[in-house]
């Protein structure tokens, strides 16, 4: 999978950008604050319907711009092409399109796959559980077709139960149908998540073996979000009085988490900040490899400010792996990273929101 063309309007400092991308490595170089990261952000938006950068949605829209829009021409490895777009004007809601037709956001995310490693990626290892759930569910969504329907069922039931909790009703008859629905959908989601992690683990082992060999073997553990050995419906019933006080549901797959452990670093606290970054990178590369194994093509890989995040040896290892895989890479830096100087690439200069091809 690759972007042949990327058009951006009104995204942060990018007023109007239209670039043709190469099938391999594309490098966006320029001074800090020029808009390089926003190029990767545009690609990520098409795949996730959110930014990888923190802050409110409103910050994405360029000050004074009437609308925000990102469009791309996609080319598949099997020769298929499609046009995808995401935008909004005067509303916080996204409008998604595929080949000119309005579609649900889920359809757009299913059409376009992008993974990104950036300065905040260490939060996948050291941050809140929400980051790890997002990573896990994006991967499951792309390899398990049953996931989205079960996730929608779960979210609908969760919304209804939370509304009942805030209404302070005590009627068991009102709670029980929604708690049964939550339990059934949660069981399906949990099974899909655990199966995904089992498929991911050997690929992650290969990735960490190349980037962090000193840490030994790697293992993954899923934490489902309610007590072990208990059916979720029963746990929800027992937890109901406490949930009424809090006003929201505290057990379920929306509270799940997963963890990673190494033979020589069994706890997250044993990792240095640099090792956290490399572990997060290994997770993203493993997820991309699993996508490629299942779908027959690599997702687009974005690497933001690679030279400042990794030393040259690790930069070289990542570039070599992605070049060998034939993945399209979008990469940023204030200068061309040294390991790329001997590698075929397309170079763009970014300054004051303008993007110009150099090579």
UniProtKB/TrEMBL annotation:
<keyword id="KW-0238">DNA-binding</keyword>
<dbReference type="GO" id="GO:0003697">
    <property type="term" value="F:single-stranded DNA binding"/>
</dbReference>
<feature type="binding site">
    <location>
        <begin position="30"/>
        <end position="37"/>
    </location>
    <ligand>
        <name>ATP</name>
    </ligand>
</feature>
<dbReference type="InterPro" id="IPR001238">
    <property type="entry name" value="DNA-binding_RecF"/>
</dbReference>
<keyword id="KW-0235">DNA replication</keyword>
<keyword id="KW-0963">Cytoplasm</keyword>
<feature type="domain" description="RecF/RecN/SMC N-terminal">
    <location>
        <begin position="4"/>
        <end position="334"/>
    </location>
</feature>
<dbReference type="InterPro" id="IPR003395">
    <property type="entry name" value="RecF/RecN/SMC_N"/>
</dbReference>
<dbReference type="InterPro" id="IPR018078">
    <property type="entry name" value="DNA-binding_RecF_CS"/>
</dbReference>
<dbReference type="GO" id="GO:0005524">
    <property type="term" value="F:ATP binding"/>
</dbReference>
<dbReference type="GO" id="GO:0000731">
    <property type="term" value="P:DNA synthesis involved in DNA repair"/>
</dbReference>
<keyword id="KW-0234">DNA repair</keyword>
<dbReference type="Pfam" id="PF02463">
    <property type="entry name" value="SMC_N"/>
</dbReference>
<dbReference type="InterPro" id="IPR027417">
    <property type="entry name" value="P-loop_NTPase"/>
</dbReference>
<dbReference type="GO" id="GO:0009432">
    <property type="term" value="P:SOS response"/>
</dbReference>
<dbReference type="GO" id="GO:0005737">
    <property type="term" value="C:cytoplasm"/>
</dbReference>
<comment type="function">
    <text>The RecF protein is involved in DNA metabolism; it is required for DNA replication and normal SOS inducibility. RecF binds preferentially to single-stranded, linear DNA. It also seems to bind ATP.</text>
</comment>
<keyword id="KW-0742">SOS response</keyword>
<dbReference type="GO" id="GO:0006302">
    <property type="term" value="P:double-strand break repair"/>
</dbReference>
<protein>
    <recommendedName>
        <fullName>DNA replication and repair protein RecF</fullName>
    </recommendedName>
</protein>
<comment type="similarity">
    <text>Belongs to the RecF family.</text>
</comment>
<dbReference type="InterPro" id="IPR042174">
    <property type="entry name" value="RecF_2"/>
</dbReference>
<keyword id="KW-0547">Nucleotide-binding</keyword>
<keyword id="KW-0067">ATP-binding</keyword>
<dbReference type="GO" id="GO:0006260">
    <property type="term" value="P:DNA replication"/>
</dbReference>
<keyword id="KW-0227">DNA damage</keyword>
